Amino acid sequence: MTNRHLEAAWDYHDATKHTYWSVRTNPHYLDWANQPLPFKIYPSLNLLPLPREVPQTGMAALSVLSERNIVSDRTALPDLGNVAQILYFSAGITRRRAHPGGEIFFRAASCTGALYEVELYLVCGELPGLEAGVYHFSVADFGLRQLRVGDYRGVLVRATAGEPAILHAPATIVCTGTYWRNAWKYQARSYRHFGWDNGTILANLLALCAANRVPARVVCGFVDADVNRLLDVDTQREVAFSLVPVGYLPGAPPDAPDNVTPLRLETVPVSKTEVDYPAMRAMHEASCLYSPEEVAVWRGPVPGMQFPADAGQGIPLRPHNDEEMSRDPIERVILRRGSTRKFAQEAISFAEFSTLLDCSTRGIPADVLDPPGAQLNELYLIVHAVEGLNPGLYVFLRDRRTLECLREGKFRSEACYLGLEQDLPGEASVAVFFLADLERIVERFGNRGYRAVQLEAGILGGKLYLAAYAQRLGATGLTFYDDDVVKFFSPHAEGKSAIFLMALGKSAKRKQQ
């Protein structure tokens, strides 16, 4: 099945929807004795330790989150310290906590179920302090393990049909998803989580690159088989999901080798046994691209968003100005970030609320979001407690930077129900639902558009996390009852699909440091 057999995206999406009855009739349980390892381990490869003491950028989190893109036609060559900083603050272990059953690891970016199914690899030319090669980022011991020696950037140039950001990047980070590590808990719905969890990592990564004034761009269009072969992953278990070229060099890398030989490197099994959920692999395979020519055709502009013709002027955002805005550095905010487990049901100011939306929606540099500032997801909100804003249902018109009120009223209990009957979206100050016109997106981008819409939602969610914690607020990502969300926001949301949910507000825990 090819990327243009569009029924694949719909078959997967419909089959993995949550409903009131599906969560009550699902016999699935968590087999704790078979819980997957949270790390990929190559036992036979030597570790190249990454430097742990690297200079901090000192750049304010809210400022770098607002950056749309760092464009450069001058040399921007990251060194080993930059690589260490980017990897640590994107996916590194920031805290450890002992418990009777072992040890819990907290990472720089949030992840569904704290299962961390996204792995990072580095494909680079010669960098200061690091020889050219293909590397795996070993999170557990904070280092790199070299899979291939030599400059293989040409493989990525060919796989992306000459994408300029890849062509001129001294280094590219490749993100993969491991099916079973997340499916142990979430079953076939895990393929949606690939986008969410990869996206939160990319939100951090883009912020760190912006803080270092290093160009970076998310690349979704590539020949899957070529990238998977370069990384030597077992595609029945792990697959490439996104690429992020980092830095700029004026010249082009060496041509790609004629063939990339298999490595067959040993890895530690993720679990004693694995349960296969074929729907995930079927969805991924149906969204693969098979040649550079197909990649080139796949790229192009996002169709225009559809808004009602009678939309009014709306309520304009009023974010903090430069003097009022938090100056907490991006590194400190990432270390502070967590996932809020209880909200205080207190109001946040309209300036805080506006800053959350403004900083997180200024645009994402990505090949699938053309022209710059284009969007796939639309933000629908249930406002419970925002000073100066009546409780009710709203839609955020991102191009106009305004809110349109759909219906006033108090909807805390409804928010709890929509969020899979969890308390958090009802206790928060605001619940943000990401909805998308999947028909429009899949028609334009094929099944691969389904990957892209989930990934964009994850990046936006990751930016909301950081914008919240920069203002000493709380945030958490959640799942939802798909069709009930759409019905709740209709008729405005009629024909759209629910993609993601974030709850934002004041944490009931002790004050953040």
Description:
With 513 residues, the chain is an alpha+beta fold. It is 32% helix and 19% strand. It is built from 18 helices and 15 strands. The chain has helices at 7-15, 22-25, 61-65, 80-91, 153-159, 164-167, 179-186, 190-211, 224-231, 278-286, 292-298, 330-336, 350-360, 412-418, 424-427, 438-445, 448-470, 482-489, and strands at residues 48-49, 93-99, 102-107, 118-124, 133-138, 143-149, 171-178, 238-246, 315-316, 377-383, 392-397, 402-408, 430-436, 474-478, 497-505. Strands 9-12-11-10-13-15-14 form a 7-stranded antiparallel β-sheet, with helices on both faces. Strand 11 (392-397) and strand 12 form a beta hairpin. Helix 13 (350-360) runs antiparallel to helix 17 (448-470) and helix 16 crosses helix 17 (448-470). It starts with 6 loop residues before the first helix and ends in an 8-residue tail after the last strand. The mean pLDDT is 94.
